[in-house]
Specification:
The complex is a heterodimer of chains A (503) and B (338).
Chain A (H helix, E strand, L loop, with lengths): L7 E10 L2 E11 L4 E5 L6 H8 L7 E6 L2 E3 L4 H7 L1 E4 L11 H6 L5 E2 L2 E2 L1 H14 L15 H13 L5 E5 L7 H16 L3 E5 L3 H7 L2 E6 L2 E7 L5 H9 L20 E10 L3 E9 L3 E5 L6 H9 L6 E6 L2 E3 L4 H6 L2 E4 L3 H5 L6 H13 L7 H14 L16 H13 L5 E5 L7 H16 L3 E5 L3 H7 L2 E6 L2 E7 L6 H10 L4
Parallel strand pairs in A: 3-10, 3-11, 6-9, 9-10, 15-20, 15-21, 18-19, 19-20
Antiparallel strand pairs in A: 1-2, 1-4, 4-5, 7-8, 11-12, 13-14, 13-16, 16-17, 21-22
Helix pairs in contact in A: 8-17, 12-13, 12-14
Chain B lengths: L2 H20 L7 E3 L2 E3 L1 H24 L7 H17 L4 H26 L3 H20 L3 E3 L3 H8 L1 E2 L2 E2 H19 L2 H10 L1 H6 L4 H27 L1 E3 L7 H11 L11 H20 L7 H16 L1 H7 L22
Antiparallel strand pairs in B: 1-2, 3-6, 4-5
The chains are: A alpha/beta (503), B mainly alpha (338).
Chain lengths: 503, 338
């Protein structure tokens, strides 16, 4: 064990939400003057742990020692006063106020209740200078780039003599230079003895800046490791939760397709979303996309469906150039898209199963040509039976269905349009085993029937089981396109992700 | 009966009962000169413009928006109709012009909301304020009085023993039900109001739907404006339809349509409009002093809204069948294989 006493020590932290154990007996030790990375897949409990630490949620069990003394925070302000400052992923400052006001909001230097504007501006400028920033502190915050705003948020966090600084995905919206600037600031703070708890999905960045890391999986602590002792492959294996030895080759992998080309994306990209990529999808082919969360999987899907505008590149379908500017245009080319976030981007929770299923078809027909009720009933009945949607009641509100059944409703909505390319973004996330197997079987059947499928999943086994070929993404780049032959295993996929396609 | 319609119906019944206590014979309807007469008929007749405006407002609110400009549209359309008739235009042509202009104004609102992207409350505030000025420009700051017997029919005449206004409101109601429930407009409106981003990703053209809805709301207001002007045989750019947008919003809310958009209920809106009209009648019939009428109205409306709130009801009248809160399960039951 290290000789230095930890500045922050969490022991046996547990946290329950109705129906879910978010954190179970989690320990975390952060030493003074170190950058400590908190790693884990989405839903592993990173945000919950940070919220418990910063007093947003009370812990159900466990203790927090700050500098050797036990503390409990009922409110984020209390944590802040104790010296734990947090900068969240989304910059939560007031863009309409000036930089100086943002930094010292609520802590303005006053005399007889009047704000001392001069000293306020001076203190703000001093704070920024400590971060190697020279800004016009009287300018409104909105005038500056997101990166600068992030720095201002850090300056604000440091105003309170922070001993522990929590940075929750501070780099997700920054470009390379901006990340470098942030890292310089972090190294400075480190030298001043500030402990930094750093959350990021970018592995390269973690390996560049962090000293140690704690890995969480499914609400439990997987372990903590000095950064030099754990390679990227082992890290991914621990995050996903499987030993390398366990990873077996799958036998019943589908043979490669040699059918005609359906869609070709050539150097398609979107600034700030995904770097230009080239991808070919054949008729009846299942193309898997593998990569960690935030690696650009969803961005690829959204570009191909016209949900976002591409800023570069071109797409051809059946050899004809097309411009996928809107979902409607993509739909006329028979492309369908089941988004990752079913609730936010997919379903209309207050409408019934029937209404949700016929929605896309009705949208295509326009409101003046209603689908006759008998035809609606037929369509919906057929898919309730085919996909085993339960309860089998077309007039049930979609909000009352379980996750798996909601996913099936969404699938039914697109299947009645008989698409040629079906894009599925995490169709099996958070649904029960039975429904998951059914959806996998369905994908295989659809593909045998000639439908192309772009299949996105964080589960590598699933991707390998279904795909004819696999695109690997990392840090918003398509780094490799691998045929799914005998040599491709989950281990190879993880190696590819870890090495960044350089091998 | 639909649960959502229960509370407005109860309140309407209570108001009518209250009236019956103060005015025996309140509920009686008699035939005079071959027409139906009675307080109930009056409520329907005077409530007709509000019903019209509320129907349009319902669809706007269902998309998650709001239309503050309907009152001004009422004034503009009434002023245009009266001006045209006073200059010798035929009644039908005058009404057609008034309603057509209303439709254009509504499309303008829809354009601001759907294409320019201004928040509905601000976008329609523009026409709410500017529209009053426009109405006064049309009437040249005067009250235009018209004495055309045919025009008078719309707001004051009778057909099939019933006031024409009631029949007109019924026709518009039927048309709205047809558009939204027989055709698919209702589904698409509820979809856009329920989840705009998901609707976009399902291929809905929400712009077209929004413009249609705002145009429809203004069309309803235009018809109501003609009806109001006809009833008093004059156009008053200043006072015609004053505050009717607020009554219409109230009617929609009382009718059970949420201001956040999504599901809407046309039946509820009609009930809501009738509750408000009955309330106005009640205030006069039970002799509430004129200077306190607005306050009285506000109190009743607040009471109705509270009654409709499930949270409020369960706090004030604890119910037996309230489900017992179950403790969170300790085992991680969600299956997220990673």
């Amino acid at each position: 064990m290290t000789s230095a006493a930890p500045i922050l020590q969490l022991t046996g932290i547990g946290k329950q939400f109705p129906g879910v154990t978010a954190l179970d007996d989690v320990d975390l030790r952060v030493l003074p003057g170190e950058v400590h990375a908190l790693m884990g897949e989405n839903g592993a409990g990173k945000s919950t742990l940070i919220k418990v630490l910063t007093g947003v949620h009370p812990a159900d069990s466990g203790t927090i020692l700050l500098d050797g003394r036990e503390v409990t925070f009922a409110h984020p302000l209390e944590a802040q006063h104790a010296g734990i400052s947090t900068v969240y992923q989304e910059v939560n400052l007031c863009p309409n106020l000036s930089v100086a006001e943002n930094i010292l909001l609520g802590r303005e230097p006053r005399r007889f209740g009047r704000i001392q504007w001069k000293s306020l501006r001076r203190r703000a400028a001093e704070r920024l200078a400590a971060l190697e920033l020279d800004l016009d502190v009287t300018a409104p915050l909105a005038q500056y780039s997101l990166a600068i705003q992030q720095m201002v948020a850090i300056a604000r966090a440091l105003e309170v003599e922070a001993r522990v600084l929590v940075l929750d995905e501070p780099t997700s919206s920054l470009d390379t230079d901006e990340v470098e600037q942030l890292f310089r600031v972090m190294r400075n703070l480190k030298e001043q003895g500030v402990a930094i708890l750093f959350v990021s999905h970018f592995l390269d960045q973690v390996y560049e800046i962090a000293d140690r890391m704690t890995i969480l999986r499914n609400g439990r602590r997987e372990g903590d490791y000095p950064i030099g002792e754990l390679g990227q492959v082992e890290l991914i294996a621990k995050m996903i939760g499987r030993d390398l030895a366990e990873l077996e080759r799958l036998d019943d992998r589908p043979p490669a397709r040699t059918t005609g080309t359906l869609l070709e994306a050539d150097q398609l990209g979107r600034t700030g979303g995904i770097e230009p990529f080239t991808l070919t999808i054949r008729e009846g082919e299942v193309v898997g996309l593998a990569g960690l969360l935030g690696s650009g999987r969803t961005e690829v899907a959204r570009l191909l469906f016209g949900a976002d505008h591409a800023t570069s590149g071109s797409v051809t379908i059946d050899g004809e150039p097309v411009s996928l500017r809107t979902p409607q245009i993509a739909m006329t080319h028979k492309i369908a898209f089941c988004p990752e976030d079913r609730k936010a981007d997919g379903l209309i929770p207050d409408l019934t199963v029937r209404e949700n299923v016929v929605l896309a078809l009705q949208a295509r027909r326009g409101w003046t040509r209603p689908i006759p009720r008998e035809q609606q009933a037929q369509l919906v009945d057929r898919y309730i039976k085919a996909l085993k949607i339960s309860p089998a009641d077309p007039e049930q509100l979609v909000r009352n269905l379980s996750g798996g059944n909601q996913q099936k409703v969404l699938l039914a909505r697109w299947l009645i349009l008989e698409p040629r390319l079906l894009i599925l973004d995490e169709p099996t996330r958070g649904i029960d085993v039975g429904a998951k197997a059914e959806i996998q079987r369905l994908v295989a059947e659809l593909s045998d029937g000639g439908m192309a499928v772009l299949f996105i999943s964080a589960e590598l086994e699933e991707v390998l089981r279904l795909s004819h070929k696999v695109g690997v993404l990392r840090d918003r780049r398509l780094i490799a396109e691998l045929p799914n032959d005998d040599t491709l295993t989950t281990e190879v996929l993880m190696q590819t992700i870890a090495s960044g396609g350089r091998s | 009966m639909n649960r959502r319609l229960l509370w407005p119906a109860v309140v309407l019944a209570l108001l009518l009962l209250l009236n019956l206590l103060f005015t025996p014979g309140f509920l009686s309807i008699e035939v005079k000169d071959g027409h139906f007469y009675g307080s109930l008929i009056d409520i329907l007749r005077f409530g007709a413009p509000l019903v019209l405006v509320s129907l349009g407002m319902t669809l706007v609110i269902a998309t998650g928006g709001i239309d503050l400009s309907v009152g001004s549209v009422v004034a503009i359309s009434g002023a245009l109709a009266c001006l045209a008739i006073s200059e010798g235009t035929g009644v039908l042509a005058a009404v057609a012009v008034a309603v057509a202009v209303a439709l254009v104004l509504g499309a303008f609102n829809g354009f601001l909301v759907a294409v320019v992207g201004i928040q509905p409350i601000v976008a329609t505030l523009i026409l709410m304020v500017a529209g009053r000025g426009l109405a006064q420009l049309i009437t040249d700051g005067q009250i235009i009085t018209v004495t055309d017997a045919n025009f008078k029919v719309i707001g004051g005449g009778y057909l099939l023993m019933l006031p024409f206004g009631i029949l007109l409101a019924l026709v518009v109601l039927a048309a709205t039900v047809f558009l939204t429930r027989r055709l698919a407009l209702g589904l698409l409106i509820e979809s856009v109001g329920g989840n705009a981003e998901a609707s976009r990703l399902a291929g809905l053209r929400s712009r077209g739907i929004l413009i249609t809805v705002y145009a429809f709301a203004a069309l309803c207001a235009g018809i109501a404006g003609v009806m109001v002007a006809s009833n008093v045989s004059s156009a008053d750019g200043n006072n015609a339809g004053l505050w009717i947008e607020l009554d219409a919003i109230l009617a929609v809310v009382i009718g059970g349509t949420l201001l956040t958009g999504g599901r809407f209920s046309l039946g509820g809106t009609v009930l809501g409009a009738l509750v408000i009209q009955t309330l106005t009648t009640t205030i006069y019939s039970i002799g509430v002093p004129p200077e306190t009428t607005l306050l009285f109205k506000a109190l009743v409306v607040a009471a109705v809204c509270l009654l409709q709130s499930t949270a409020f009801r369960s706090k004030v009248f604890p119910q037996r069948e309230r489900p017992v809160a179950r403790p969170a399960t300790t085992k991680d039951t969600t299956e997220v294989a990673r």
